[in-house]
DNA sequence: GACTTATATAAGCATATACTTAAATAATGC
DNA sequence: GCATTATTTAAGTATATGCTTATATAAGTC
């Protein structure tokens, strides 16, 4: 499955949206998703597995809970793939603006 | 089908890459794709239909040919969806830099 | 107008994936 | 250690999608 396929599923997109702010326990995620999509807890768990398997999420145990967090590498890959089309909707930037805009440089201190 | 599903298919991604530079005739696209993916002309045509149907491509007739071009609205939608994750990999920009970076403003003249 | 070229559509089939229910695994509390 | 809570995994099924071959549509050529 390709990263784009992973994001093709609305449940998985919603889960990632939930994780964009904060880590959340599998159960807390399941509760929200079950309410919004009317699917079983097992189904939610299977989606979490897909997100793990394709590098969109990480888990850590905390007692009986499993805390999920977003992992951005595949999202960055997608962002990079879009680069070849960006000139269609982003104005041409000069070299410096591009550096700033796309964060290619680590800056020591914001001015 | 969601925009992400459309991009989930490697053939469709490749077609869009081909269109990123230039318009191309359906036949020219089919030729390349058939060589690279070993699928039939009909299959390529079906992918072109999906790209049309979901707003990723437009066609115009030119004699017996059909010239395809990329249409970026759904790509921009995806780009916008990624916004909520960008803070993970882009440095925090100040307001002005963000304006410049994301092209929210039409500038009259580059300095 | 028949023939060829360019492209799309139809019909049918195979496979992947998203769900279900049931069961397994693991930590917590008594 | 047994029950409970939290979560994953297994097995089975339905459906969507991507392919195939065959056919339709439309324009260009003689």
From TrEMBL, chains A, B:
Coiled-coil segments on the chain, per record: none
**The organism's place on the tree of life at top rank:** Bacteria
SUPFAM superfamilies per UniProt: Winged helix' DNA-binding domain
Cross-referenced Pfam families = HTH_20 (PF12840)
Keyword set, alphabetical order: DNA-binding, Transcription, Transcription regulation
Q: Sorted alphabetically, which PANTHER family does this protein's record hold?
A: TRANSCRIPTIONAL REGULATOR, ARSR FAMILY (PTHR33154), TRANSCRIPTIONAL REPRESSOR SDPR (PTHR33154:SF33)
Q: State the protein's name.
A: Transcriptional regulator, ArsR family
């Amino acid at each position: 499955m390709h990263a784009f396929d992973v994001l093709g599923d609305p449940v998985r997109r919603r889960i990632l949206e939930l994780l964009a702010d904060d880590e959340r326990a599998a159960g807390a995620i399941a509760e929200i998703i079950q309410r919004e999509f009317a699917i079983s807890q097992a189904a939610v768990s299977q989606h979490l597995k897909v997100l793990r398997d394709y590098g969109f999420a990480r888990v850590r145990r905390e007692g009986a809970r499993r805390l999920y967090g977003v992992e951005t590498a595949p999202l960055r890959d997608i962002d990079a793939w879009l680069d070849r089309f960006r000139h269609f909707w982003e104005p041409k930037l000069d070299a410096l603006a591009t550096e700033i805009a796309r964060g290619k440089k680590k800056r020591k201190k914001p001015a």
